[in-house]
Amino acid sequence: MRILHWLDLWWREVGGPLRSVSELASAMRDRGHEVTIATADPRDAPPAWLEGPSPRLVVLRHGVLGRIARTESARMTSLLEWADVVHLHGLWERSTHQLARRCRRIGTPYASSLRGTLDDWAMTQSPLRKRLFLRAVASRTLREAALVHCSSSGEAAQAAPRIDRAPLVIPNLLRLEPLLDLPRREAERPTILFVGRVHPSKGLDLLLRAIASLAEPSLVLEVAGTGAAEPEMRSLAGSLGLADRVRFLGLLGDDALATALQRAWAMTLPTSQENFGNALFESLAAGVPVVCTRGLDADAELRASGGAVLVERTVESIAGGLRSLLADAPRRRTMSDAARAWSTREMHPRVIGDRFEAMYRGMTRG
Fold first, then answer.
1. Of 6, 8, 19, which Cα lies nearest the Cα of 277?
2. Which residues contact 54 (CB under 8 A, 6 or more apart)?
């Protein structure tokens, strides 16, 4: 098959969707499909993808008001005619709906991945503008899509009433094979790992306060990630007396992240919102028990894994979740084994790849 992905901006700030599209595109390429990714701005794209052959990256530059420039119209049409299926990611960008309209005109089927855009929390941000845009523009794109895709059952449940159709749920495809085989070697000192952007929404401030409240002088926190709030979080760690026990590791590559996961007693992410949470599922695949916020989109999947402790987003609840794990090595081992078994069964790239491949083939038959 010839598969075309559209993601309006290839910027690191986009977060999870960048990783999701990249992994999915590479997996479909490895299965023998021709894959092209199109974007309006390739700022943080792998340079090799601009050279092709697959996945190759094609740039359709913006014109006015976030639309694809008129000078790119012929190239856009040529790309959409080349594709057997088009996979659109996101909802609030005008360019996305421009591609959807052109797909309908030339008869190329398209799927729309919401990427959390219709979650209850997301709809509280600029709510009037989003409701108007959904009614005037996005509703037709979703109604006439071959299918609407969500990454978790919780996301689908929130989106369905807003689009009047049942989305197809397929988790993000993550390259988990190395993590599934990673030996567990817990650090001698109790070590908590935080993986994510250093941003207020991720709850690192709550985690720091929770660790301070535990009064465990040997406890270490490792922070894998970067963000604008890092100076503030360093200052907070110092004011809480944790400066010598909090290690800011920066953005880690695959090998360094695997080492950090291997050593961790638990991974903690007290986030306010997570459409899927790639780091949560990478941790589970590595056999690391997870402490995370109750009520995330992937709440049902996290519960089913057997490897997650779900807590309220308060200092007291986070501290209680950590305390229960740190004091109970047999429980950590049981959770580790359950999480890995579930990840192998439900989240293995081969399993998720089969589901996406079936999705694309179904679109071409439809």
1. 19
2. 29, 34, 35, 36
DSSP state of 174: -
Our CA dihedral for 166, 171, 173, 179, rounded to 10 degrees, sits at -170
Give kind and range of the element (H or E) at residue 159.
helix 153-163
Which pair of tokens denotes residue 173?
A: 């495809």
Summarised one tens digit per residue, pLDDT across range 291-322 is: 999 999 999 999 999 999 999 999 999 999 99
Name 319's Cβ contacts closer than 8 Å, sequence gap at least 6: 210, 211, 213, 214
At 8, list the tokens. Answer: 């309006």
Which residues have a Cβ under 8 Å from the Cβ of 184 and sit 6 or more positions away?
A: 262, 286, 287, 336
* Domain annotation for the chain: domains and CATH numbers: 2-173+349-365 (3.40.50.2000), 177-346 (3.40.50.2000)
What does the alpha-carbon distance between residue 302 and residue 173 come to, in Å, rounded to a whole number? 16
Least confident piece of the model among 41-50, 93-102, 193-202: 41-50
Return the closest-CA partner of residue 219 out of 147, 323, 139: 323
Phi, psi of 191 (to 5 degrees): -130, 125
Give the list of residues 6+ apart from residue 87 with CB closer than 8 angstroms, or none.
3, 4, 5, 6, 110, 111, 113, 360
Please say whether the beta carbons of 211 and 242 come within 8 A: yes
Buried b / exposed e along 204-219 (16+ C-beta atoms within 10 A): bbbbbbbbbbbebeeb
DSSP string, 104-117: HHHT--EEEE-TTT
Cα separation, 209 vs 205, whole angstroms: 6
Of 266, 265, 283, nearest to 274 (Cα)?
283
Q: Fill in the DSSP letter of residue 9.
A: B
Tell whether the model's pLDDT for residue 52 goes beyond 70.
no
What pLDDT, on the 0 to 100 scale, is given for residue 17? 83
Tell me the C-alpha distance between 299 and 289, whole Å. Answer: 15
Round the CA-based radius of gyration of the chain to a whole number and report it.
Answer: 21
Q: In this structure, what token pair is assigned to residue 38?
A: 């199109």
